[in-house]
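mind reviewing these tokens:
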Amino acid sequence: MAVRKAGPLLLAVVVSVSLLAGCGRGGNATKQPLDNFTAEEIYKRGEFELENENKPRDAVHYFSEVERLYPYSDWAKRGLIMQAYSHHKARQYDEARGAAQRFIDAYPGDEDAAYAKYLLALSYYDQIDEVGRDQGLTFQALQSLREVIEQYPDTEYARSAVLKFDLAFDHLAGKEMEIGRYYLKRGHHTAAINRFRVVVEDYQTTTHTPEALMRLVEAYLALGLTDEAQTAGAILGHNFQSSPFYQDAYAQLRGRGLTATPQGSSWLTNVYRQVIQGRWL
């Protein structure tokens, strides 16, 4: 079969890609002038660095150059959202937020604005790690995720944001539990109760609620406040009877000759009345 000769256009593309590839060798990506290349060629090089070379920081350079050299082109808009993505992939979270926010400010009605908002929220969310750290980032993540859910409810990003919102919310409850257990272990029962109360009242939909109720039983029994302990046990038994935390709380109450039934009048009585009996007044 005869081999066709490459036409001038194909040769030009091959030469451009080769030259752009040379720009990235030896760590000199930021030192090579790109003025003679088209916006598409520079953008494609950024994609190559990101997808084939796994070099998101080098990709940022090319996407930034598209925006600098061709600021009013459609490629500049694409380059800006890809800067946000590349910064995030490189774990440069502050820079990712900055690029994402610039995209939102410049193109609020664009179809990629939802993705930019999601990337901004993700840059906070992905910095949430172990429970023991400061929770400021968790609150910022929750706020940003809520904005994605409320502003772009019909997008795939909203669905993903809902899942991450629940996990971040659970993270905050976990922080309260960690501090509460710390106080309880050291015999600071009132301080521990205050933390567990926050979980029961403010984070009752999280996975930490059963343990919080069991710890309340433990702390109130230690203080001799049996009405509160029994009421906490009643809430736990009604909502989480199959939980091992209920079995533990039940054993503690039974060991004192008590039952898991609501008693007296306290904040826990109000919780029991509202959550279990459905009475809010």
